[in-house]
Amino acid sequence: MIITRAEHRTEVIPFRARDNTPLSLVHVTSPVEPGKGPVLLVHGSGVRAELFRPPVRTTLVDVLLEDGWDVWMLNWRASIDLDPLSWTLADAAVYDHPAAVEHVLNATGAETMKAVIHCQGSTSFTMSAVAGLLPQVDTIVSNAVSLHPVVPPFSRLKIDYLTPVVKVFTPYLSPAWGYKSQGYFTRAIRGLVKATHHECDNTVCKMVSFTYGSGRPALWSHENLDDATHQWLSGEFAEVPVTFFEEMGRSIKAGHMVAAGHHPELPGNLVAEAPQTDARFAFIAGLDNRCFLPESQQRSFDFFRKHRPGKDSLHLIPGYGHLDVFFGDHAWQDTFPVIVQELNGTKEPTP
Fold first, then answer.
1. 150-157 contacts, C-beta under 8 A, 24 or more apart
2. Which backbone phi and psi does 126 adopt, to 5 degrees?
3. Distance CA 86, CA 243 (A)
4. What are 233-256's pLDDT values in tens digits?
5. What 3-state class would DSSP assign to 285?
6. pTM
């Protein structure tokens, strides 16, 4: 049976993180009863759950529903659909993801579930999993970065030297400054970006590259995006707190994720011991990623393989970068099959 997108039903469900921060889940269903269990989609920083439903011919949500999955999309504390706050990845790992998993399982009656996690949704979700906080999640498909962030040299310079300057003027950076100003400092940043980025006419697209990576563009290839998606992304990025960049800067220097703040639920060193999770991980990275280099996922895969050889897998995808893995015009045939096969357990683990 072919299910059209017009037949999808969307329900937004508010709930609370374990520290009482308001979050939400977006439950997407079709007229066909799902024959498989729940799968949670977790977005990155400064975006929102709708990241997984761009205006392309076939989205990941479409494919998952067609394959029989019960689809839930999480708006965790980094979502631009929520009130902005100075969050950290450790906060999300301890408070957001365990609460989201618990809510979905209670709502569905399932005993276990699976997850597709992206970027900082991936780092925080992986932190939570390796700390043993997500025992009900049995399969995790991670895109771009998980435990070992590796960035281009210019990105590291920006984090080390620009973050302290930004902090003096504002608690946030926002690609949305590309079309709305919040004072002289934001206009100065936009002017700098427009003067140094000439790859397209979309100022938000340029601001995303400045904020998150090194390249023109940094998070996708223009060749992979159709015009509608390139225009759509202008409304899909907003505030990211300086606290995140500080936490990521410390993690990049350490060579692995380092939790910010005081969270006794997380180990002092997330890579000192074997992961405290039985979930099978599938690590995905676009070979053209200029936000987090593919080496990021290679290192995390090597860490998992050292402790449990033969269980997990690694997929390095040519022709793709950071986010076009999800909203590239041809992702439905190039990257989505990898994700679906991993969720179904039909991909062989990487030797």
1. 150/252, 150/292, 150/293, 150/295, 150/296, 150/299, 151/213, 151/214, 151/252, 151/291, 151/292, 151/293, 152/213, 152/214, 152/215, 152/290, 152/293, 153/214, 154/214, 155/213, 155/214, 155/291, 156/252
2. -65, -40
3. 6
4. 999 999 999 999 999 999 999 999
5. strand
6. 0.95
